[in-house]
Design a protein that fits this description.
With 643 residues, this protein is of the alpha+beta class. Among the domains are: 295 residues, Na+/H+ antiporter like fold, CATH 1.20.1530.20; 78 residues, 2-Layer Sandwich (Alpha-Beta Plaits); 71 residues, Uridine Diphospho-n-acetylenolpyruvylglucosamine Reductase, domain 3, CATH 3.30.465.10. It is 61% helix and 8% strand. The protein has 23 helices and nine strands. The strands form two sheets. The protein has a five-stranded antiparallel beta sheet. Strands 6-9-8-7 form a four-stranded antiparallel beta sheet. Strand 1 and strand 2 form a beta hairpin. Helix 9 runs antiparallel to helix 10 and helix 12 runs antiparallel to helix 13. The termini are far apart. The relative contact order is 0.09.
Length: 643
């Protein structure tokens, strides 16, 4: 027994270590990291060089469920209320209606391609209906792709909130197939189960998050114990909600959101610990699911699996995203990118285990097809995220900021932290500006040597400076230490020269010779640009007026406009002209034009009818008049008759 235990520990720890080491290769060649973890599991499995035989579906589902609960709690913990407010509408629409639409389209395709029943087809669609939270969070937070915040917020909230929907659909459909419910009773059962699971998940998630915060803030524990008790209580919320018939995955995600957006003791330690546990959960889940797969069986369903993967990537997901985002004013390029970032991952494979556990017909085919869809998605979509964002012109300049932030747990709830900056060679500090009095440098690293602040003198370019400050002052320090000087701004991106955001729009119009409309009289440049750009404001955004462009040079932490530039030549935004994903404005414009053409056509028809009626009336009158005139008698002289 001891030998078996040691062998299991050796294999498990070795696979985790190999997965971590292969991440270096992933970063170097640009491969999706989670795909690498999955391939490690496949290589170690029975069809790979490792030759490990692992077929225990219940153990795999148990490991995957715990790992997913940890990932979702950390995802919620890292989601800000501001992000949730910004993207709640589109993200939650995608997480509910979007999953249903995707599941329905894939279910229809599976029904006709494979000859399965409608419920079996919908089951497969539900399994692959949600995006993978681990894959998307890695892309947004580690992958180095800098997107507009509205896009990244929508993807982040969607990926964290659509897993419970897919899990609910899968569990319900598996139960229906296991007990042999008729297709007629399916709709009613789905509705009742949805209300019960989502309602309980939301309520118990909020209650569980509140209890976690109260326990952590009131109990005087050893600092090292706080992360452990928080994670343990999060798993309690997950398990308890599942036991009473609610969605445990939704509950743990909601609890994470609540805990991460209130003041909680030892928050810096919690974030570090949960970050490590999330990585461990991702590695464990992907490697375990890779071990469970048997690639030698994929040949039987390879054609159907690849066909369904193509339908999912190029039809089902794009159609669902387009219909869901249509009311929210996304552009064609933004809709196209969000549809492309529909990565499928470990959650889909985890859900594909449920038919195997319940012994359903076609269970092995469902698992193998799901695995092929996930592999295709990670390879095709995961490897092309950055090129796609670049082609669609959605990458924005990276937000400037500190190299590292270390939040401090101080008595009395003092909001202090240590931030580390690498001094930008073109920054104001590198050019001789003074450090503000309220910012207290504590250490300077220069050329690998640690220097006291008094002995180091003024900070120099590429110095690493550690500063004690309050969190609300960090944006100001960003501008001083990490931002290039104004002269270093690229005119093609930020305009030819800066303007005062409080300058009146009418004054700029008088100087540059363009007419300011009556409704814009009295507006400042900041007010005008804020109105035009709404809430989604990022550096380099342009607002044309007359023959010039106003350009956003810098924004504050709340996405308010801090600096404005002026480009003397109007530049159209060079987005690809996609022949699909028509936006709300384009459809509205097309509808207005079509209605106008129809109205004009009807008006022309009425005019023609009136003209025809007038002409016909004139002809009738002329005929009647001719009939009313006396006619000469037969044989009479017409000239005398006229006399």
């Amino acid at each position: 027994m001891l030998d078996t235990m040691n062998l299991v520990i050796l294999i498990a720890a070795g696979l985790v270590a190999v997965s971590v080491f292969t991440s270096l290769v992933s970063f170097r060649v640009g491969a999706p990291l989670l795909l690498v973890f999955l391939l490690v599991g496949l290589a170690a499995g029975e069809d790979g060089p490792g030759g490990i035989e692992f077929a225990d579906t219940r153990v795999a589902y148990f490991i995957g469920s715990i790992a997913l609960a940890i990932i979702l709690f950390d995802s919620g913990f890292e989601t800000r209320f501001s992000t949730l407010r910004m993207a709640a509408g589109p993200a939650l629409t995608l997480a509910t209606i979007g999953v249903l639409l995707t599941a329905g389209l894939i279910g229809t395709a599976a029904h006709f391609l494979l000859g399965w029943s409608w419920v079996e087809g919908l089951l497969l669609g539900s399994i692959v209906g949600s995006t993978d939270a681990a894959a998307v969070f890695f892309l947004l937070r580690v992958g180095g792709v800098h997107l507009r915040e509205m896009i990244s917020a929508t993807l982040e909230v969607e990926s964290g909130s659509n897993d419970p929907m897919a899990i609910f659909l899968t569990l319900t459909l598996v139960s229906m197939l296991a007990v042999g419910l008729s297709e007629e009773a399916a709709a009613l059962t789905l509705f009742i189960e949805f209300a019960r699971q989502m309602g309980l998940g939301l309520i118990l998630g909020l209650a569980g998050g509140y209890v976690i915060v109260q326990i952590v803030n009131r109990l005087p524990l050893e600092p090292a114990l706080y992360p452990i008790v928080v994670l343990a209580l999060a798993l309690v919320v997950f398990a308890a909600t599942s036991m009473v018939g609610g969605s445990g995955f939704l509950a743990v995600y909601v609890a994470g959101i609540l805990c991460g957006n209130v003041r909680i003791r030892q928050e810096p330690a919690l974030k570090r610990f949960q970050g490590g546990m999330t990585w461990l959960g991702q590695i464990g889940m992907f490697v375990t699911l890779g071990l469970l797969a048997t690639p030698s069986q994929f040949g039987d369903v390879a054609v159907a699996g690849l066909a369904l993967a193509v339908i999912l990537i190029f039809l089902a997901r794009p159609v669902a995203v387009w219909l869901c985002l249509l009311p929210f004013g996304f552009t064609r390029s933004e809709t196209a990118f969000i549809s492309w970032v529909g990565l499928r991952g470990a959650v889909s494979i985890l859900l594909a285990i449920l038919p195997l556990i319940n012994g359903l017909p076609n269970a092995q085919a469902i698992f193998n097809i799901t695995f092929l869809i996930v592999l295709t998605s990670l390879v095709l979509q995961g490897w092309t995220i950055r090129p796609m964002a670049g082609w669609l012109k959605l990458i924005v300049p990276p937000r400037i900021g500190p190299v590292e932030r270390m939040e401090l747990e101080l008595p009395g709830g003092a909001d202090q932290e240590i931030v580390a900056y690498r001094v930008h060679p073109e920054s104001a500090i590198a050019h001789g500006d003074r450090i503000p009095r309220w910012a207290r440098p504590v250490l300077i690293l220069r050329e690998g040597r640690s220097l006291r602040v008094q002995a180091a003198g003024r900070p120099q370019a590429n110095d690493l400076v550690y500063i004690l400050t309050s969190a609300r002052q960090v944006p100001v320090l960003d501008q001083l230490f990490a931002a290039p000087s104004q002269a270093a701004h690229d005119p093609a991106l930020f305009g030819d020269f800066p303007l005062d955001p409080e300058a009146a729009l009418s004054e700029i119009g008088a100087i540059y010779g363009f007419e300011v409309e009556a409704e814009d009289q009295g507006l400042t440049i900041r007010e005008f640009m804020t109105r035009e750009l709404a809430d989604d404001i990022e550096p380099t955004d342009r607002v044309p007026y007359g023959n010039i462009d106003f350009v956003v040079r810098a924004i504050d932490a709340e996405h308010g406009i801090e600096q404005v530039g002026l480009a003397v030549e109007h530049i159209e935004r060079a987005e690809p002209n996609l022949p699909f994903f028509f936006s709300r404005e384009e459809i509205a414009g097309f509808t207005r034009r079509s209605y106008r053409r129809l109205r004009n056509r009807r008006a022309r028809i009425k005019v023609l009818k009136r003209r025809s009626a007038t002409a016909a009336s004139a002809e009738v009158i002329a005929t009647d008049k001719a009939d009313a005139e006396p006619k000469p008698a037969a044989g009479a002289d017409p000239s005398k008759a006229a006399e």
